[in-house]
Amino acid sequence: MKGRTILLAALLAVSLIASAVFATFWILSQPVPDTVGTDSLDQAAAASLPHPSEDDAGPSEGHIQVKLYVLASSGQELATANEVIPLETSLQLQAKRVVELLLERSQTIPRGVVLRELFITSQGVAYLDLSREVVANHPGGSSAEELTVFSLTNTLVANFPAVKMVKILVEGREVQTLAGHLDLTVPYGRAPRYLQPESERQETQNEAG
Questions:
Q1: For residue 116, what are the CA distances in angstroms to 124, 133, 155, 173, 192?
Q2: Residue 109 exposed, middle or buried by CB count within 10 Å (0-12, 13-18, 19+)
Q3: What's the pLDDT tens digit per position in 134-152?
Q4: Which of 49, 72, 103, 137 has the fewest CB atoms below 10 angstroms from its CB?
Q5: Which residues of 154-193 are buried (b: 16+ CB within 10 A; e: fewer)?
Q6: With 80 as the cut, is the pLDDT of residue 55 above it?
Q7: What is the dihedral of CA 78, 82, 86, 88, to 10 degrees?
């Protein structure tokens, strides 16, 4: 009886071992499911990210508003014109874009004038190098000369706090004057009060009071 029990236990153990071996080989023989490629994962991740629509970007994104000092309708003083221009990567490049726009838009500037170069020193002096037309095509007269000079200086000083004064050059050289009235061997800052736009004259008067 005891021997029979041992035999049955041995047969049961062999049967269990055989079943385990069979199951292992069956699992290993099954095909491995395809994995998702890297590109597919990247695409899936990208699709899950929020994408801003054109409506999300405000009209001023990547742009700044600047103030140009142009000729007033009276022809005797400056007026302001607000413009929106692209935001540049440096102060010097931004200042160039503003001056170029002023040369195109303002009647205070003689026709044909081109900005040759502009650079700003660490002391806050902007050197503005203009083409020879600023002298050759200037109409003359003390008032016209003041409007030309101060439309340039006021535009730079008002828009860029780093600029305190502006030195005007012509063809890379210092000149005595544009039309015989203002001394251009020295730099200039903001326009005198009598040339400022009416709104700014009122602000200055209120501040003084």
A1: 19, 12, 17, 11, 27
A2: buried
A3: 999 999 999 999 999 999 9
A4: 49
A5: bbbbbbbeebbbbbbbbeeeebeebbeebebeebbbbbee
A6: no
A7: 50
What is the C-alpha to C-alpha distance for residues 77 and 33, in angstroms, rounded to an integer? 81
Percent of the chain with pLDDT over 70: 68
SS3 23: helix
The owner of tokens 């203009």 is 130
What is the average pLDDT score of the chain?
A: 80
pTM: 0.70
- The single-letter DSSP state of residue 123 is T
pLDDT at position 6 is 57
Helices (H), ranges, 137-190: 142-159
Structure tokens at 91: 């102060």
113 neighbors 106 (Cβ within 8 angstroms): no
Residue 194 class from Cβ within 10 Å (0-12 exposed, 13-18 middle, 19+ buried)? exposed
